[in-house]
UniProtKB/TrEMBL annotation:
Residues 201-210 have a biased composition (Basic residues). Residues 1-12 have a biased composition (Polar residues). It comes from Mycena metata. Residues 1-44, 190-210 are annotated as: Disordered. This is Uncharacterized protein.
Amino acid sequence: MPGENATQSTPSNRGANGQRGQGGRQKKTARKPAGSDTGNANVQEELARVLAELEATKKKLEEQNARGAANAVVPDPVERLVRPKGKARDSKNGFNLQEAMGLEEDREQYDAILRSIHTNVVRANVDITIDFRRQDPAKLAAVYKLTREEFPYLTRARFPLDWAIAEMTMQFLRNRRRYGLKCKRIPNREARKRAEASGGNKRRRRPWRG
């Protein structure tokens, strides 16, 4: 029947159309953006330029440091002065303290150090009525420290164990004790022995500051 033929032909036509529709689809191939190769080349060139500048700057700094090291002033090493044998101010069996300190041509500084020690002995409350060997080590250390702070020349690297300051302090105390004995402001050795024997040394006496 004509109506049936028309109805049956419809699915076959759709199938054919469907096959043609699926077969007509084509895969798209990815393409690089226009100008991408040129952009990468520019980045590489910029990176190479920056690296070259950094290398040039590094080389320049190294040259400047080398010139600075060559022109740098190296401080002279401190000369270590060891205490000579004998007693200071003993021309026969001892030594000259000013010469031993390397100040034979600088009397001004030598005298300034002496004046400073006289002041620092009082500041440290050192008892000038007793011998140097019987002094309080802490008070003597205070004298040495105060004098070193005022005169950088008296560094321990130059004078081990502060021997130069100790010699000056010893001389000052000896001279003051002699003067005190002469003026009878300090009891002599015999009087001190009698006082010690009678127990008078138990009484604390004020240091003489005449």
